[in-house]
User: Fold this.
Amino acid sequence: AQSVTQLGSHVSVSEGALVLLRCNYSSSVPPYLFWYVQYPNQGLQLLLKYTSAATLVKGINGFEAEFKKSETSFHLTKPSAHMSDAAEYFCAVIGGYNKLIFGAGTRLAVHP
Amino acid sequence: DTGVSQDPRHKITKRGQNVTFRCDPISEHNRLYWYRQTLGQGPEFLTYFQNEAQLEKSRLLSDRFSAERPKGSFSTLEIQRTEQGDSAMYLCASSLAPSGGVAETQYFGPGTRLLVL
Assistant:
């Protein structure tokens, strides 16, 4: 069965600092992996997705993620945090019937 | 370009009452999903439709829950005899079945926040 684990329920960075949000997956088949962002009282917005075309995936708002099979990881990074990046971030893997299986989420705080 | 819409955005009800939520997917999307999100957790899958056919239901979907998608367009999720444990955000997502086997993107609505008193 597929699953994802997000390490760190809360991450705090300074504005302009590197953002690193960690995600490890478990899958018996080559995985399709996603990162979504959720702002308060809103639905989820896709940041990026990995579909085996390239291991380094670029997304919206300057985010990118690298698929590392040897480490079963799909960590999300952004070189320079902005105040508007403060939100909750979810890593997900595709399960049966194309449903998304989400991690517990990481809340990102950005301080001046 | 209209996205996924959900109605109502908020619902407060008393324990034991029935509630119904509506989801309008992106118009050309043939797949529709319902998820439930409790505080501090990631969304959990509830059920999935391809066109009007309900193809999978999670074990989370007790017999008090029912979902429909008549004519493969909008969908409704009904909860009968609500319990306090049903308090959560109910999210709907839609997608277009991909060609070539590449995983499609699910587009989420803003959610319906349910509070059962």
Notes: Chain B has a mean pLDDT of 92. The two ends of chain B are 37 Å apart (CA to CA).
